[in-house]
Amino acid sequence: MRMWKLGAYVLALMAAACGGATETETQTPETEGALTLPLTATSADGKVFKLVGAAFEIMGPQQNILITDTSADTVSVPLAIGAYSIRLHSGWALERANEPGQRVQAELISPNPLSFSIEKGATSKVRFLFKLQGEGSADVGIHVDSGGSISGDIQFQAASSDPQDGLLFDSLVGQTVPFTLSFETSTITRSSDGYVRRLHVTTGPVTLQFGGMPSEALTGRVAPALNGTTAEFVLEAAPHGEVRFLGLRLGMGNPGTPDDDRQFFFTLREQELLESVLDSEGYPSAKPFQVNSLVSIEKPYSGSRADGHGLFRITPY
To answer: Which interval of the chain is the signal sequence (predicted)?
Structure first.
């Protein structure tokens, strides 16, 4: 069995929402927060980057705000408590902070618009994630240039609710919600039982993000519960060359613990790959692939659940 530990460059620009902003005629510290948006970030190798030429549109229940002056390192704007989405408009670029005007190649991997919420007495954080081109190494001599991610649009078709949770997921039915599950590192191992050959992927801590219309269930409860956890998935190659994705489950929980109300499972179901790719030794390749999969998000130890499907692109590292 071979094992590779892979590093990555993933740049995150964070928006922190804090309670207790200045009182106005229509808002008070009890009903208002503030969105703070730093426009610089540091990559894993210590290089500092700045987002330039950016414009952000914030959309919410009481306020729609367009931010066009992003020349400072940080911008702030007061917001009423509630659910919002923020869109990064086209025209942005990333530059090295010590080399103004020198743009670097980067890809925005967060859903755009990205959902977030402002809550009383709490600090919320929103991150726009960018992949930067770079280099990495492994003991088998492979070349990597980015972190791993799973992304696509979930088309929600059904939901059920436990009376104790209220209508937790019901509003999702009929909606299409973009999401990104990203991770900066992953561990990849290979195994064989003589008949099938498998590629096992264990991620580092993940960042789960939802886009589209704000959803309190997804952005306020599911994402915070699963962020920072790890995921595992397996690709399995049969002798005739077909490759199956054996599913992914994110989120673990222990029944009876005080944190039960904040635990969720996010599951992608087993499915055959749309395009099977094997390496020179007949193992599933660690290259990006696509899969049509059923999706479920559920609260364990209750009857609250949302089900859907979608086409997802998976990059193992």
So the answer is: 1-21
CA 164 to chain centre: 28
pLDDT at 57: 92
Q: Are 115 and 223 in contact (CB under 8 A)?
A: no
From 183-187, 259-263, 269-273, the region with the lowest mean pLDDT? 259-263
Q: Where are the domains of the chain?
A: 1-138, 147-317
The answer to whether 111 touches 209, Cβ cutoff 8 Å, is yes
Nearest to 242 by CA among 290, 276, 284: 276
Lookup: tokens for 25: 């005629």
The whole-number pLDDT of residue 200 equals 94
Query: Long-range CB contacts (< 8 A, 24+ apart) of 262-265?
Result: 262/221, 262/224, 262/225, 263/225, 263/299, 263/300, 264/221, 264/222, 264/225, 264/226, 264/297, 264/298, 264/299, 264/300, 265/296, 265/297, 265/298, 265/299, 265/300
> What is the mean predicted confidence (pLDDT) over 18-22?
37
pLDDT tens digits along 114-135: 888 877 765 566 778 887 765 3
What is the predicted pLDDT for the residue at 9?
45
Q: Kindly state the greatest CA–CA separation across the chain.
A: 73
pTM (two decimals): 0.76
Cis peptide before 61 (omega within 30 of 0): no
